[in-house]
Amino acid sequence: MTSVRHREEDDRRDIPVRPTDDDPLAATGSEFIGGPAGRWARSGHRWWNPLRVMVLVVVGMFALGMVQKASCYSTGWFQAGDGQYIHACYSDIPHLYTQRGFAADLVPYFDKIPVSLSQNGDIHYLEYPVLTGLFMEVASWLTPAGTDPHSAQVYWLVNAGMLMICAVVLVVCVARTNRRRPWDGLFVALSPALALTATINWDLFAVALAAAGLMLWSRGRPGWAGVLIGLATAAKLYPVLLLGALFVLCLRAGRLRQFGAALGAAAGAWFVVNLPVIAFAPHGWAQFYSFSQSRTTDYGSLWLIIKERSGDSLSGVNEYGTALMLLLCVGIAALALYAPRRPRVGQMAFLVVAALLVSNKVYSPQYVLWLLPLAVLARPRWRDLLIWQAAEVLYFLGIWYRLAYVTGPKHHGLTADAYHLAIGIHLLGVLYLCALVVRDILLPDYDVLRQDGADDPAGGVLDGARDVFTLGAPAHEPRHAGSGGEQGL
Fold first, then answer.
1. The whole model's pTM is what?
2. Average of per-residue pLDDT values in the chain
3. Looking at CB atoms within 10 Å, which of 60, 276, 360, 474 has the fewest?
4. CB burial of residue 301 (10 Å; 0-12, 13-18, 19+)
5. How far apart are CA 401 and CA 90, in angstroms?
6. String of DSSP letters for 416-447
7. Where exactly are the structural domains of the chain?
8. CA dist., res. 206 & res. 166, Å (int)
9. Region Disordered: start and end of each range (predicted)?
10. Per-residue pLDDT reduced to its tens digit, 49-76
């Protein structure tokens, strides 16, 4: 009888979960489009499968985000004053086309940027990681040469097209990471934060690579997962934290050989991309790291509130931020090893990246993209995700209105106190989601993905693995072993 019951549970786990069946808020919201999924949605052979629907949705949302930047595209990026902040349509991309020498055909990392262009004495070379610099350079090759505003507009459009491809890749990877929950990618596709911030900077490129790495990990391919995580780290530094999360989980599950494969592949991919620039343009390559180290307390951070309210210069903010980050990482590692069940990959990845954003000395509005796919993998509940997104949208408006107040002659916008409140709302939104994830780890019965007896559907070699090292309760078998349960060291 027990084997029959387990077989019935396994059969149910083979059926894709639709959000209207699984999530009360999604079911309620679906009334606006005709109600929960029914007979037609159950037909898996039809053209309108989840992946195609989500691709169309994310393209539509991305296009809406581009429309939101329309007033800046017309005039706001190139006129003096606070127009690009008042209309909340600022983007780094058209400004850096000229200020980092792309309009003048300078070669990133090799050609020094004249002070007259960079308008910043600390910037001598392009201050972005190598793979992002290549992304920016490829976009400049597709842009007609010139230093006039029209060329900068075209450069933004070219980058927007390339970033739209990244957005599609991101949604597809999230949808395919957990095979039973393809519709989880829909929240990424519909994310207001994605629409608003996708074309502010180039972060979406690294986010898509990192999501592809996690998808490959979920398919039991640690080597290829490492390659993608290494490439993501070559585009933006934060994805290296994913390796830390995987190490702790693999330590608990006795999967260190698989982690070693991922780590070696990540290091190899990073070196292949970076080594030519290190060898032939070492000063240009080092600009990103020296700029990150010398950068002072900036917009969006907890440290800015402390600095401005205390009047302290916070000259040691690098040390403070590093200490807080290390403390949080130790706490997350202890949580993972003490928890009654091994946390899922999505939960650990979300917590460690959230720790970086909370402790960092700057929080640019597009950094929300770092957390977006991880939040969906960690806590796929629409109510909680929307609460967090609402906090991020408020911060998105807050930073632009603060800059409008600071730069505009009429001081229209947010005062320092109001902006501090916006930062606080953003931090509370992140911490709210972190608290729910921590609760799910400590009380697994609250975990949405484990309520049907699953272990870690996106865990790859970790799914169904037996614990071999814990600091808390004795190691035990997961309730239902998955594909990873048959794989040893």
1. 0.91
2. 88
3. 474
4. buried
5. 11
6. HHHHHHHHHHHHHHHHHHHHHHHHHHHSGGG-
7. 48-486
8. 9
9. 1-28
10. 889 999 999 999 999 999 999 999 988 7
